[in-house]
Design a protein that fits this description.
heterodimer; A: alpha/beta; Rossmann fold; six-stranded parallel β-sheet; 22% strand; B: 22 helices; binds iron/sulfur cluster
Chain lengths: 231, 474
């Protein structure tokens, strides 16, 4: 017997039965395939898009994420420059090699030095897109991929994330649906709720334990809401 | 680690006499419950979510073989490898084998209670591989060669002065005159010291809070981001986890995630919830080239079908520790092994035996707070009682306790005698204790009153007062 057989046999012995019958297996397979939602808290699910956006901002700010709202994608480079100057950070970025970010009018900010690719240990600031933002808890949902290396989310001291208002969904489950709609899962999905923190010394919360000390969201409030009218 | 659960009484006494521990536990005992209560007050559906969380775990445990096989198929389909480990030795061997296959010299580690349970660090060190704990609390206790004293806040027994002394002793390359007295300085130093370790480690080991059968994913929940650096930077990611962590779908994981952070730290959601599925994909710019899962049984299947099966629902949130009057008085080290508090009092005898851990189920006041806060409604007091019954049946209870209980049972079966004795005792104690209202010592109960005061009875027994009221009402 292999170790695998040992463990599975011990499970069945404990449960007092053999392998599950075909009928039960079919039921369980259907349960997984339909992946029905469990109870969804009303907090976010019941909201109209504008209120959902407000909830996202409130919840994000409650966990020390900073949020700047711009009305047009074209304003993003200016907001990046403003934020870096205000925080006394160098005008240098490691940016995800993402076509949507590339398409922004960076030319208008010639003083910003931008490197595209994964993060290296010297990077002080990163800029990434996200897959979605979850209003329920002010959570950003990012995934790994050719255009979105994961190291950008964790190595630099400051992480800036561009969110379009249409990407703000109500719940984690809405995020799962977006993920499934894309086909095969990426290697990693990061749900990020505020900057890195620890309470390991005397229960006092300190920001920037190992990941970013600052998490800044630039919210493009373009009035669009992709998730509108779906449910 | 070497268990010292059999000396619980002595361990607990040492804990009660330790002033640093007292201060540290007072801070923790107030903070966690208050933050949990606030978070729950903000989510009206919390109790309903607890029912669903319990149902999800019960359903999964009832079909554990099916979901484990599905999970394994999905991990494999995503390019990962599952290693089954019936016991601790097999789990250690599996991890060591993977490390050796890539010639690993150092491994970084995220916090994992299963790794503590199988004493992984000792095994790696004995085989020439250096494990580096990266969770701040775990790093501190690794430097001090101590076991964790809490399942989510492993260094909760320390104050910042101890951490400072530990860092000064360990980080000898740094300027001895540097200021280091405050928590932000300590956190900054740990960050700076550990950063190169993340970048150079050959293997990263994390635990898992959940495994998703539907997708073959492992989910970890952290606040520091250390788990993410641990699993993203090295060539190899090993997930060390146990079989009861599996859930059917992403939706089921979402429900349990809503319970976990609120119950644990009182956060709405932890900073980082990370779902990993296999190694890096073609075209990915970073991430590990290999993804392994070591799936540990180590005594869990023995709980199936018996009176302790409910324990397999445990999310390791630590709410039962934070709300336990015994844990918050004696601290985690008193429990003598990996899992302390009420969940440890139930789990430890199951995993390392009643001979070693028989005292733990007795370390309870049966106040029921643990069960009342458990996010998956585990009947912890009932299960502690089951252990006591087993211990009694096996004649493993202390002799004085057995004879005392026998005598009490004999008297209790004779109501007239019982009432007379209780009434007499209540009157006597009431008279003796009238002035102070409590006793500092009691004959035959010296152990008990050494660390507590016994309140003096009001002078009448409950039965007598009840009977009197009944007469008055009629
Ligand atoms: S027994 Fe319940 S309260 Fe205790 S750690 Fe487990 S899930 Fe949390």
């Amino acid at each position: 017997m292999t170790a695998r057989d040992d463990v599975l046999a011990a499970v069945r012995r404990g449960l007092g039965r053999g392998a599950v019958s075909d009928a039960v297996a079919a039921e369980l397979t259907a349960r997984v395939a339909t992946h029905r939602r469990n109870l969804i808290p009303a907090r976010a699910a019941a909201l109209e898009p504008a209120a959902r956006l407000r909830l996202f901002v409130d919840m994000a700010e409650a966990v020390q994420t900073t949020v700047a709202r711009v009305s047009d994608a074209g304003d993003v480079p200016g907001e990046v420059a403003r934020y870096l100057a205000a925080e006394n950070l160098p005008a240098e970025l490691a940016m995800a090699p993402d076509p949507a970010l590339d398409a922004l009018p960076w030319d208008a900010r010639p003083l910003l030095r931008i490197r595209r690719g994964k993060s290296s240990p010297e990077d002080a600031v990163s800029l990434t897109p996200c897959l979605a933002a979850v209003a329920e808890t002010g959570t950003l949902m990012l995934m790994s991929g050719e255009r979105t290396p994961t190291t950008l989310n964790f190595l630099p001291d400051t992480h800036i994330v561009v969110v379009r208002s249409g990407q703000v969904v109500a719940t984690y489950e809405d995020g799962w649906d977006l993920l499934r709609a894309r086909g095969a899962l990426p290697r990693t999905v990061n749900f990020i709720t505020g900057p890195s923190r620890t309470g390991d010394i005397e229960q006092r919360i300190e920001l920037g334990a190992h990941g970013p000390r600052r998490l800044h969201v630039i919210l493009i409030d373009d009035g669009a809401s992709e998730a509108d009218g779906e449910r | 680690m070497e268990a010292t659960s059999h000396t619980f009484a002595g361990n607990a006494r040492a804990g009660l006499a330790n002033p640093v521990l007292r201060r540290a536990l007072d801070m923790a005992g107030a903070g966690f419950p208050a933050r949990r209560a606030e978070a729950i007050a903000r989510l009206p559906e919390f109790d309903a979510l607890r029912d669903e969380g319990k149902a999800i775990k019960d359903h999964t445990i009832g079909h554990l073989d099916f979901y484990l096989e599905l999970y394994e198929r999905q991990v494999t389909a995503a390019g990962g490898v599952v290693h089954w480990a019936p016991d601790a030795a097999a789990a250690r061997a599996a991890v060591l084998g993977i490390c050796r296959s890539v010639g690993a010299k150092t491994v970084t580690k995220g916090k994992s209670m299963v790794a503590e349970e199988i004493a992984l660090n000792e095994h790696l060190e004995a085989n020439g591989i250096t494990p580096v704990e990266t969770d701040l609390g775990e790093y501190i206790i690794q430097l001090r060669h101590e076991p964790p004293s809490h399942i989510i806040a492993p260094a909760i027994h320390l104050m910042k002065e101890q951490v400072e002394a530990t860092f000064r002793a360990a980080h000898t390359a740094l300027d001895p005159a540097r200021p280091l007295a405050e928590a932000p300085l300590l956190c900054g130093e740990a960050r700076a010291v550990l950063r190169p370790q993340f970048l150079t480690a050959d293997v990263g080991i994390t635990g898992a809070n959940f495994l998703v059968a539907e997708t073959g994913s492992s989910i970890i929940v952290t606040n520091e981001g250390n788990g993410d650096l641990t699993q993203t930077l090295p060539k190899v990611h090993i997930v060390i986890t146990s079989i009861e962590k599996v859930v059917p779908t992403l939706e089921d994981a979402a429900t349990l995630l809503r319970l976990l952070a609120r119950s644990a730290t009182g956060q709405e959601f932890s900073s980082y919830t990370t779902m990993s599925t296999g190694p890096r994909r073609p075209g990915d710019l970073d991430g590990p080239e290999q993804y392994h899962v070591v799936l540990v049984d180590n005594g869990r299947t023995a709980l199936l079908g018996g009176e302790f099966q409910d324990m397999l629902r445990c999310l390791r949130c630590a709410a039962c520790l934070n709300h336990c009057p015994v844990y918050t008085a004696v601290g985690g080290h008193a429990y003598g092994w990996v899992y302390p508090g009420p969940m440890g009092a139930v789990l430890t005898p199951a995993l390392i035996g009643l001979d070693e851990a028989g005292d733990l189920p007795n370390a309870s006041s049966f106040c029921g707070r643990c069960e009342s806060v458990c996010p998956v409604r585990i009947p912890l007091p009932k299960m502690m009682r089951h252990w006591r019954e087993r211990q009694f049946a096996l004649r493993k209870a202390p002799a004085a306790y057995r004879y005392g209980l026998g005598l009490w049972a004999w008297v209790a079966q004779r109501p007239a005698l019982y009432h007379a004795l209780v009434e007499a005792k209540a009157r006597l104690l009431g008279r003796l204790g009238r002035r102070r209202g409590r006793f500092r010592t009691m004959p035959l109960a010296g152990e008990w009153t050494r660390v507590r005061d016994m309140p003096a009875p009001e002078g009448r027994s409950f039965h007598a007062l009840w009977a009197e009221r009944g007469r008055a009402r009629r």
